[in-house]
Amino acid sequence: MRVVYFTETFLPKIDGIVSIMCLLLDHLQTRGVPAMVVTAERGVREYDGAQVHGVPGLPAPFYPELHLTLPGPGTYRAMRAFAPTIVHLIHPSVTGMPGIYYARRLGVPLIASFHTNVMQMARYYHFGLIERLLTAYTRWTYNRADFTLATSRRMARELQSIGIRNVGLWRRGVDPAFFGSGVRTPAMRARLTDGHPDRVICLFVGRAAPEKRIELLREVVTNIPNTHVTVVGEGPHLAALREHFAGTRATFAGYLTGQDLADAYASADIFTFMSAVETFGMVVPEAMAAGLPVISTRVGGIDDVATHGADGFLIEREDVAGLVEYTRRLVEDPDRRLRMGARGKAAVQGLTWPVIMDELLDMYQMLVDGARPATVPPEDVREAADEDLLILER
User: Fold this and answer.
1) In which domain, by residue range, is 330 found?
2) What pTM did the predictor assign?
3) 164-169, Cβ contacts within 8 angstroms, sequence gap of 24 or more
């Protein structure tokens, strides 16, 4: 097997897609599968044995970290020399478009994976016309592929509801050993609370962006004594959040990585996640692997990993009262926090990245062999899509 990837974003940029790509390429190296990455030219020529084919591009308006590029004949010649047996488009928008044509010219199967729900984000920001255009473009693009991969069952059914065919599941994993390795220390608790380690820490980890709705966590510290909201992460909404939480029990800890991140998870008490738009929500299984009970909106793939009432509480996107009530229950019952955290930690032990990536390689092999991997059952597609629309329009 030999795989060519088209991706809009790659190293040295760091984001969720790049992290998944690196994990995947690392796994291909361990399995002896040659890979080639087609992406914007950023000076990277190789990653863990994979060839990186850079294509000149221009910074995207309003998002200069992302370079827009359109691979040309030179890319096709490089692909032909590489001789792939399958082509994988990582969320095709611009860079991946020629990949559709090149895969067909080479006569190899084409698979596309969905990573960013730009349609739902447009809906969330009330750009109805843009949403319709994005929906039509997404449907056309993904239906050019032989198979489409969604990150969760909820997301798969939303893609099916807009007319995308042959949708399967590329689950998301976690590193239980790493996120379970954190150490709960008074020093880290003091760092996460500006010197008040005795408070109950309600942790958020992720990008400080409007759709994450971190501002709703102010209701926790306003209504529940001895709680403290800690935000780990940075982003465009950070200044507004600092102003919103001014004078409350809140700490903005910045961007944490490595052992600091693992220790932050371990030193918190509850993981609170009120995001409105996700394709999966990777931070939730991370928090579960660290032994934290989770209070989360039902978005992305959260339903695939967390169980309401067992390892946390799952609420609808506008249920702020539920956020406060469930947080109060956990604040007032430390033993329940520990029980739920232990159940969550046990629940994600099998979601390791090697298992998840081997599932993907199995799907590659089926397509190469002329078979079709299993699709997500389409039952309740319309009901799920209508429910999402109603929630966002309230």
Assistant:
1) 176-347
2) 0.82
3) 164/138, 164/139, 166/372, 166/375, 167/375, 167/376, 168/363, 168/373, 168/374, 168/375, 168/376, 169/376
